[in-house]
Design brief:
single chain; Four Helix Bundle (Hemerythrin (Met), subunit A); 255 residues; four-stranded mixed β-sheet
Length: 255
């Protein structure tokens, strides 16, 4: 393949969809150039020249696709691949509830002195990671209730000043968990077949719900990894059975 047409993947450490995308392409034998944009001015400039401002991005020449949906990647690269079967919406809600409960427990275990420190090779405070676990499904519910686009800005909304401590973040997580349950209780389309607009395209609610479940699940795995590295046994580990059916990356963190 000529250099100009070689597949490029723009990513950054700690990004759940980035890791999943790279693992997916590698598993299916797709040769690609890996471009880590974290702290890489040239990589970030190349990303912006495409017209993109978030990762993961899969590009070929001047064309690109948001890689939050593997189905979109498969179509973009014209791959002959059958993707996984999705869990039902009710199963996804049940998995998400389990994940949010676990993440709330893990957040309570993080030493206060570590909250403003980065984790591994990502220059982002652990407090931001902890908040992001809960913000993902909260943003999804907000977009559904307000009938608005699920934007990147909505998902990446930073924690407010009222979310400074582990106790603050845990209470916030409990509130999000309750909000998800309440939304689902009153949502009329149990099959989630309606379409919704997102920053990575127009998709069925079912697909966006799946992403809103596996994405925080992956970050919950990262919180377990963090606790392990601090020598703290996670309070009630999420097991393979707990997470079965969610399209997670194999690894918890991309080094």
């Amino acid at each position: 393949m000529e250099t100009a047409e070689r597949v490029r993947v723009f990513w950054q450490p700690g990004c759940t969809s980035c890791l999943r995308t790279k693992e997916f392409l590698t598993r299916h034998g797709v040769d690609y150039e890996s471009i880590n944009v974290h702290g890489n001015d040239a990589g970030m400039q190349a990303l912006r020249e495409l017209g993109a401002r978030s990762v993961p991005i899969v590009a070929r020449g001047k064309e690109f696709v948001f890689a939050q949906s593997l189905a979109d990647v498969v179509r973009f690269l014209a791959l002959d691949i059958k993707l996984h079967d999705k869990l039902s919406p009710q199963q996804l809600i049940d998995k998400l509830d389990l994940v949010l409960a676990a993440a709330t427990r893990y957040v309570r275990q993080i030493p206060a002195a570590k909250l403003e420190q980065p984790f591994r090779n990502r220059n982002r405070p652990i407090r931001m990671l902890a908040h992001h676990v809960f913000r993902i499904p909260e943003a999804f519910v907000e977009a559904m209730q307000e009938r608005r686009e699920l934007t990147y800005e909505l998902i990446m909304q930073p924690p407010g000043e009222g979310l400074r401590t582990c106790a603050d973040l845990a209470r916030y997580g409990e509130g999000v968990r309750a909000a998800v349950r309440q939304w689902w209780k009153t949502y009329p389309d149990s099959g989630c077949g309606q379409m919704m607009d997102t920053y990575f395209g127009r998709h069925r609610v079912h697909e966006v719900l799946e992403r809103s479940a596996w994405h925080p699940a992956q970050h919950a795995r990262q919180l377990m990894l963090l606790l392990d590295e601090l020598g703290i046994e996670p309070d009630g580990r999420l097991t393979a059975e707990d997470l079965a059916g969610l399209p997670l990356p194999e690894k918890a963190w991309d080094d």
